[in-house]
Fold:
Amino acid sequence: MNDGVNGVALAVFIFFFLAVTIVGFMAARWRKAENEHSLDEWGLGGRSFGTWITWFLLGGDLYTAYTFVAVPAAIYAAGAAGFFAVPYTILVYPLIFTFLPRLWSVSHKHGYVTTSDFVRGRWGSKGLSLAVALTGILATMPYIALQLVGIQAVLDVMGVGGGENTNWFVKDLPLLIAFGVLAAYTYSSGLRAPALIAFVKDTLIYLVIAVAIIYIPIKLGGFDDIFAKAGEAFSQTNPATGKPRGSLVPAEAGQWTYATLALGSALALFMYPHSITATLSSKSREVIRRNTTILPLYSLMLGLLALLGFMAIAAGVKVTNGQLAIPQLFEDMFPAWFAGVAFAAIGIGALVPAAIMSIAAANLFTRNIYKDFIRPDATPAQETKVSKLVSLLVKVGALVFVLTMDKTVAINFQLLGGIWILQTFPALVGGLFTRWFHRWALLAGWAVGMVYGTVAAYGVASPTQKHFGGSSDEIPGIGEIGYIGLTAFVLNVVVTVILTFVLKAAKAPEGIDETRPEDYTADAGDPGVQTELPPATAGTSH
Amino acid sequence: MSETPEGTRDPVVTPVRVVIALCLLAPFVAMLWVGSYAKVDPAFIGIPFFYWYQMLWVLVSTALTMVAYQLWQRDQRARKTRTGGAAQ
Structure:
């Protein structure tokens, strides 16, 4: 890929990496509560985070290193179609404004740590809760793997990791070290580690974007030139498809795809376990609503970042692997030391979400598989221990995934993960507003959505891949090309509604709902709402 | 539905709440209607319309969410004072 190691950039990168490692370990002592051996402490940071910490944590969590690499890479490859990430993140916030505070309230009232906890409590169905937990874990694993892919891209461009002919151990050693460090401080500090590191990550990211969006266009002769060159490059015919490579504006046919991808992804984002973990760690309902008004700052940054894809074309960056386009652009454009800062931003940007995702997946396993099905009498201390171990296992799994399989496998699974996680929407968000649905109907709808989504995604071919070649396919009945996840979701809802009517008519048992209407609007300070300490220690102190 | 609360509660749909709903709904209409902004001109400092318009909507939707948040806060506070100590 590159001739030699970029020494200065590497030194800067290592400096920042060491700094966050120290921060990560020190985080264990930050805002520590008395009962460190509970899942609320390790897995939710004591449910104590205020507006700003939550903002950094959620931002660091949702806008991952992979996003930073993949969004401009998509623009670099095809132009306008890749920009759907911007409307997607615009739509997320009005959406979560409506339902996330309700989830926060009911979770605090009943001590729920995961979405599956809520689903079990609301619908009185362990089966449905298991389905949601498994979907969450399955969707999160490849996402963690992609974070490691993000670090790899940066290491590649810096010249570490070597070329094709280096020994595999030397090649993967830097990734193994980064991974080992991440695993160690997540294990010891829990959610507090990524919360603190997120400050460093976001400061670096904002700095790099601000500099890049001013400095690079000046060097390239302004946005006029950049878009003129990009337009020219997109109009050239791609030999593999016989069509133009891309376009500056989506054509008529691509508009359904663009809109359905934006909407489907927006609906799916807060179904991911790691988003919910970061949400539930906030200390009040207001923190969440306030965050929906300040989180869009990240969307603005994402939009600017996406424009870097055009700059990479205009700057004549030529890479076969699109993922390397942006790291390569930084290396070509910036002085070595600032390229190092930019690489550190991406590298650390991978660590924060990877830590939160592994914690979220571990919490799901512990609460909804281990405690519900294996050891119902597990104490909070045992729960925490299991969660810590599982968070390690999840990360090892992701590492093995990245090292043994082709990168495209991780990307395919991530694509599937997005389709899958969207299928938990009716049980979760539906449950926050109504108890009308029948639990078995929800389970059936989920299953139909999962099967349809998987089969449809398997059938999508691209010039380079026979299967999983993309996430859009013809929408049955409409005939336009749309996001498979959204089609599967609509199918899911239709099946759920029809079966609910049928099951209600057949008087199938509805299950016990342990929540009450007022639980959904409770706030910190109301009676029965735990703000900081879970009941176990509150009781033992006297 | 069996969830209708008893007694003299405020109506669920009020003008303020309709405004809140519109604030939250507007970004969906604007962003999902791709045909309305899939064009190159007018460009802004060289950036095609398609891109700067969507970035502008990041700011517009933020402003709308903020308005919704403020109105909701006021709505909740007003309701609390009206129901008085009845709840707890």
Observations:
- Chain B has one domain: 15-77.
- Residues 15-77 of chain B form one domain.
- Chain B touches chain A through 36 residues (CB under 8 Å).
